[in-house]
């Protein structure tokens, strides 16, 4: 037996693989509409690898976000989840072990069929499987660290800690995707990979930063988590305990403005990452460009509102703009100049040339 064969997991029955494929396709739009749109552009094994990796990351995220489960238990579950990559028995038993979690119904439905996601994981080529496992482990261990550091609910203290958190939950994704591009796309050779690698963390972290900003109120109210650093709020005369206080709205907004500027810089780095993807890899560009455009539009709206700092407040771009960005974003991906012009337009004002549906 070859050394490679020695580490190949035994094949799952074809019927179970088909069941896993159906489950993944069906659950994906429920756990992320944006990702479900983008994944359609990635072909074959690359698409399967990215979809599987996304679902694995979402399982880890669901465990981390469950504020009702004691931190010690969440830390244990995260570590047990990471062992499922190497142990089929642990994988099959994990849904039962993770029962009792609370959170979004679709996310819980995903956790309940972790075993099926791991069936897909075992169908990936050995090198792909190894890199997916590596980066999901890096993410999961970082999540476990923060869960245990803040047992009463995550309360980020400093800008450095904020950056560390963003690396674990999103920078790792940028690294994983870039390795998958190199492995599965001929257009992303060694030279292209090295250029992308220099910016891949920024690509992942940029999207996470915008999500943190738009969900400030939601995270504080529903997940007992505050990611705006205490030190930055204190410098403006506020703090975590008054983050959603109407009496401190302006102080809180001044602190958040700095993070809006950080997010804008991160998004510009993420744009440069996409522009470095060879135009021959058009499907990869298509996968990357829509989330970036949605993030630019959301950040533009964040800069003009304080809704994310009010109880029940939210920031969401219109469905019409989403449709317009889908159309014009895909048209622009073949030209770096066209994509830069589209980004400048989105930064300035809502982009809605496509007529509203209905």
Structure characterization notes:
The chain is an all-alpha fold. The protein has a domain at 12-136: Orthogonal Bundle (Farnesyl Diphosphate Synthase). It is built from 18 helices and no strands. The longest helix is centred in the last third of the chain and has 28 residues, at 249-276. The chain is globular. The N and C termini lie far apart (62 Å).
Regions with little confidence, pLDDT below 50 for 5+ residues = 1-7
Q: What order do the SSEs take from the amino end to the carboxyl end, as H and E?
A: HHHHHHHHHHHHHHHHHH
Give a count of the beta strands, DSSP E runs of length 2 or more: 0
Examine the coordinates and then state which fold CATH places here, giving the name of the CATH topology of the domain at 12-136: Farnesyl Diphosphate Synthase
Beta-strand portion reads under 5%
Provide the CATH top-level class of the domain at 12-136: Mainly Alpha
Named CATH architecture of the domain at 12-136:
Orthogonal Bundle
User: Which structural category fits the helices and strands?
Assistant: mainly alpha
Which descriptor suits the 3D outline? globular
Q: What's the CATH H-level homologous superfamily of the domain at 12-136? A: Farnesyl Diphosphate Synthase
Q: Distance between the terminal alpha carbons, to the nearest Å? A: 62 Å
Residue share in helix:
over 70%
SS element count, helices: 18
- CA radius of gyration is 20 Å
Q: Describe the main β-sheet briefly.
A: none
Averaged pLDDT = 94
